[in-house]
Amino acid sequence: RERDEKFHNEFRKMHDYGNWSPISPEMLNYIIALLAFSVGYPGVFWNTSKAFGLIFSFQMAINGGLIILSLSSFSILYKLNMCLNTEQLDAKDQFFLSIPVAFTMQIIGMSVITLSSSVVYFYGYHKFTSFLAESQHRYNIS
């Protein structure tokens, strides 16, 4: 109980350090950029396969949401590690990851999300080049 009160007091002090808002202008800019990216990047395949373009765009939007949630959760975890004194935590409260572990998990998670988009893109690119080769062969285009 006493530990919870200390945490709440520290959290209240954080409010005095500056203006807090639910979302920073930088994060809003990043969200807009991810939305534009999720529409523009799959647009390469729009003329060849509208269904694949829609699926790829949907996947990019979901990945953008995952990236935003991942960055937000890492930010919260980092702030908790900075505010809480780890010596005060009980053994049952060791679910808070240390900063190096959280940073490593963040890098691995972002890499997996990025690679998943790359795999779908290269699949579409392979289908597109095979379609071009088939069209060239069918119409004897050199």
Automatic annotation (TrEMBL):
Transmembrane segments: 27-46, 53-77, 97-123
Ribonucleoprotein in keyword set: no
UniProt KW keywords: Membrane, Transmembrane, Transmembrane helix
Source organism superkingdom: Eukaryota
Protein name: Uncharacterized protein
Organism: Meganyctiphanes norvegica
Classification lineage: Eukaryota, Metazoa, Ecdysozoa, Arthropoda, Crustacea
